[in-house]
């Protein structure tokens, strides 16, 4: 499975990243290098192996439905790049 | 060509918990912007979620009430997409192992029962709210974000595309709402967005199997909107297909003001949500014993209650259906008939005068000025013959104003019905004497004129004469 | 007496015995940071005022009490991906250059409860992605043993600060070796606890199912003491293990008689530096001489661990890092609409390695590739874990090299991502399996650079690896050797 320029462009969109024209070939090469290496995984038959997303034997970690104090609004907004009337402000949304 | 519409619903219901799904912030509606937020629901760097126990309980209850199988191993996943109302730019939701699957809901449309299959129910977090600064989104130079709703727990109930008309879709949504109210897991206040639906509609030529391309309409939060949007969409798609065109797979919004659906964004390039297991949460394991326990504790659901009202009280299917549609109304009914009054009479009063007054004043039955207790007493007075049905309407209006004991009203206003034949006979005689013309007419063969005479007797008795006795006496005297 | 040359437990005793004041000790470290950190560059943020204030408070407590917490008044450093309320937490990224958390990580709360002194926030590879600290968006950190060399990473700032005598102890985080490898490169002790042993709440996530906070210290004794402070269940972290925590200082005994030490052949690869291999082999001989039983074991899926790790970690990272979008915190680069603002922000404020991993992660998760890459990697993770389960049925601990080489020169492999990834071959399997590991010095190379080894334990059995490491450490004097900078 060779990664193409188109693949890298698609992944950049999914990542909300711009890949400039001068860097795109570098990415294609790096992706292919890495994925070629990752193909070692295909040497192992894992058809009957269950995936491990978690190494922990934990289950049902739940908390009681009890209200805890929220942040003071000033603190909640303290890192906002832009704010207005107690809201976080963002540029216009065109859909 | 004639087409068949294929309709599926994704119903989102906010659960009535005290706190959000993954943090201790309050869920109460209407707080000032960004005051019910904390590092966790703001998605700050480094935070971790912890599942609210009650969310799982409510989701399992909903699953069982909608006849689903509960997955004994269930887990959360991350659904990745960028939107400014979603602080982490992924929604913590469930993908391949939702809490419940394979259920169904029976609905009734035009007297026929139909089964709508429920594909799955999963738990997830709600997003925040965007407030646009301009009049329309296009002339806005920006939007404001309020994260109070971010993390409010939701269940999403996904149906199979088993519906074919707007009426069926409405009936399905009404039924789901009713069930969620019965099991008390959601406030179901549609105006507050507690319950909203995404609706998928496609058309296919009648008699064919293959599904057509669907359009999705998002966030419909009233039954009327669901119905109108589907009706509009069926017409729109039919017109396109008849003209030989193709339906675009897209998301559309319902413009309630204009009564049309409008294209929002194209789904031609399917969204790639890149689901992955949520590494910050551990699985939810439910045992057979726990499931049995939940089942045992489920309250009586609308269908069972309806059957019971038909069986136990001899109500018609239709009346029983209306009364059990809302849990509150069904409970009110049960409270009234607990006083051993006639159930049909009770049903008629509840669906008639009570419902009419509640509607007129936009009140819910929980806040009815006439208590079930007083309504039962009033019905008992009718049954005993103390008051006539006509007088009862006056008594009811008095109760509506003051919620006073009906016996007291009857006594204070002197509304007791006259059933004494002697007393009524005197009034009848007076009326016959004073109205020779109608008497002549009756005797001349116009049977209808007896109605006028009855009316006169009732008027003279100030409505208190027992109408049965009045009729009987009048007939006896006229036919002599 | 040069205070900075002492391990933390010696300084603790001096504080407790009122031989020195916390203020005096703190000032000593701050002075060294002022005069010498210019060339090491281990700190991103120095919190001198807050440190002196905390020291003053600690002195009051020490004056009033005969028993004090181990960390009371003892100055340390915190990796800059652990949230500190009111103090910038940047993750060495332009993205969070100005971010001031409104909350403390659970470990910080635990440290504060002991009235410790925090000297500042240390440099790292951006968002913990890297093994050399060259991926910091601000500046690289230099190895205190030889300033031309990397300190390792991603907790390179914490390792360098301890090694240089700029802090008595430090906290780091380990996702694929980020504590053990820099500890090894800087000649100190580093521990990655069992996954779930130390709360991750407030640790800025790189790969959530692999990340774990742990101590970087001058010796094993310090490590045990700090583990006592930071380990334990936390209700704010759903992946925190609710198990009792032993007193790790009870493991500070010299006893390896009859201990079964497994030696995995797969860790001694062809590409391994000869001096490193020799030092580790020498340590194996030493253990044998001390009465341990050496057992050859096999961990056959070790060779697949890197590939699995570099699919799983980026996949988790890509979603963890989606939140950095310029909306409600962190940097923003304007754009004419929301999409371009987000895209501009992420493109300009993330560094190259971070972008590379985000993109690889998205590729592995995207439709069509999920089964071939991400799911395959999760299955490989199962096999890697099973290797260890089988091995630990036969042995008590596993001993292995920590890295194939000693520290390398700054700039030497930074432009070859795959080469960089392959350096993690000895460390990532533990993260995949969730097991604890301790790294400690076991030699000095001919170039004068430290060599480390790691001792791997069963899940939740940090006590046994501390005991094993302590026994070795006490029989040698590697931990007493000081870096070039520490000698100044």
Automatic annotation (TrEMBL), chain A:
<keyword id="KW-0067">ATP-binding</keyword>
<keyword id="KW-0547">Nucleotide-binding</keyword>
<dbReference type="GO" id="GO:0070681">
    <property type="term" value="P:glutaminyl-tRNAGln biosynthesis via transamidation"/>
</dbReference>
<keyword id="KW-0648">Protein biosynthesis</keyword>
<keyword id="KW-0436">Ligase</keyword>
<dbReference type="Pfam" id="PF02686">
    <property type="entry name" value="GatC"/>
</dbReference>
<dbReference type="InterPro" id="IPR036113">
    <property type="entry name" value="Asp/Glu-ADT_sf_sub_c"/>
</dbReference>
<dbReference type="GO" id="GO:0006450">
    <property type="term" value="P:regulation of translational fidelity"/>
</dbReference>
<comment type="subunit">
    <text>Heterotrimer of A, B and C subunits.</text>
</comment>
<keyword id="KW-0808">Transferase</keyword>
<dbReference type="GO" id="GO:0006412">
    <property type="term" value="P:translation"/>
</dbReference>
<comment type="function">
    <text>Allows the formation of correctly charged Asn-tRNA(Asn) or Gln-tRNA(Gln) through the transamidation of misacylated Asp-tRNA(Asn) or Glu-tRNA(Gln) in organisms which lack either or both of asparaginyl-tRNA or glutaminyl-tRNA synthetases. The reaction takes place in the presence of glutamine and ATP through an activated phospho-Asp-tRNA(Asn) or phospho-Glu-tRNA(Gln).</text>
</comment>
<protein>
    <recommendedName>
        <fullName>Aspartyl/glutamyl-tRNA(Asn/Gln) amidotransferase subunit C</fullName>
        <ecNumber>6.3.5.-</ecNumber>
    </recommendedName>
</protein>
<comment type="similarity">
    <text>Belongs to the GatC family.</text>
</comment>
<dbReference type="GO" id="GO:0016740">
    <property type="term" value="F:transferase activity"/>
</dbReference>
From TrEMBL, chain B:
<dbReference type="InterPro" id="IPR023168">
    <property type="entry name" value="GatB_Yqey_C_2"/>
</dbReference>
<dbReference type="Pfam" id="PF02637">
    <property type="entry name" value="GatB_Yqey"/>
</dbReference>
<comment type="similarity">
    <text>Belongs to the GatB/GatE family. GatB subfamily.</text>
</comment>
<dbReference type="InterPro" id="IPR017959">
    <property type="entry name" value="Asn/Gln-tRNA_amidoTrfase_suB/E"/>
</dbReference>
<feature type="domain" description="Asn/Gln amidotransferase">
    <location>
        <begin position="331"/>
        <end position="478"/>
    </location>
</feature>
<comment type="function">
    <text>Allows the formation of correctly charged Asn-tRNA(Asn) or Gln-tRNA(Gln) through the transamidation of misacylated Asp-tRNA(Asn) or Glu-tRNA(Gln) in organisms which lack either or both of asparaginyl-tRNA or glutaminyl-tRNA synthetases. The reaction takes place in the presence of glutamine and ATP through an activated phospho-Asp-tRNA(Asn) or phospho-Glu-tRNA(Gln).</text>
</comment>
<dbReference type="GO" id="GO:0050567">
    <property type="term" value="F:glutaminyl-tRNA synthase (glutamine-hydrolyzing) activity"/>
</dbReference>
<protein>
    <recommendedName>
        <fullName>Aspartyl/glutamyl-tRNA(Asn/Gln) amidotransferase subunit B</fullName>
        <ecNumber>6.3.5.-</ecNumber>
    </recommendedName>
</protein>
<dbReference type="Pfam" id="PF02934">
    <property type="entry name" value="GatB_N"/>
</dbReference>
<dbReference type="InterPro" id="IPR018027">
    <property type="entry name" value="Asn/Gln_amidotransferase"/>
</dbReference>
<comment type="subunit">
    <text>Heterotrimer of A, B and C subunits.</text>
</comment>
<dbReference type="InterPro" id="IPR042114">
    <property type="entry name" value="GatB_C_1"/>
</dbReference>
<keyword id="KW-0547">Nucleotide-binding</keyword>
<keyword id="KW-0436">Ligase</keyword>
<dbReference type="GO" id="GO:0016740">
    <property type="term" value="F:transferase activity"/>
</dbReference>
Automatic annotation (TrEMBL), chain C:
<protein>
    <recommendedName>
        <fullName>Glutamyl-tRNA(Gln) amidotransferase subunit A</fullName>
        <ecNumber>6.3.5.7</ecNumber>
    </recommendedName>
</protein>
<dbReference type="InterPro" id="IPR004412">
    <property type="entry name" value="GatA"/>
</dbReference>
<dbReference type="GO" id="GO:0016740">
    <property type="term" value="F:transferase activity"/>
</dbReference>
<feature type="domain" description="Amidase">
    <location>
        <begin position="24"/>
        <end position="465"/>
    </location>
</feature>
<dbReference type="GO" id="GO:0030956">
    <property type="term" value="C:glutamyl-tRNA(Gln) amidotransferase complex"/>
</dbReference>
<feature type="active site" description="Charge relay system">
    <location>
        <position position="79"/>
    </location>
</feature>
<comment type="subunit">
    <text>Heterotrimer of A, B and C subunits.</text>
</comment>
<dbReference type="InterPro" id="IPR000120">
    <property type="entry name" value="Amidase"/>
</dbReference>
<keyword id="KW-0648">Protein biosynthesis</keyword>
<dbReference type="InterPro" id="IPR020556">
    <property type="entry name" value="Amidase_CS"/>
</dbReference>
<comment type="similarity">
    <text>Belongs to the amidase family. GatA subfamily.</text>
</comment>
<comment type="function">
    <text>Allows the formation of correctly charged Gln-tRNA(Gln) through the transamidation of misacylated Glu-tRNA(Gln) in organisms which lack glutaminyl-tRNA synthetase. The reaction takes place in the presence of glutamine and ATP through an activated gamma-phospho-Glu-tRNA(Gln).</text>
</comment>
<keyword id="KW-0808">Transferase</keyword>
<keyword id="KW-0547">Nucleotide-binding</keyword>
<dbReference type="GO" id="GO:0005524">
    <property type="term" value="F:ATP binding"/>
</dbReference>
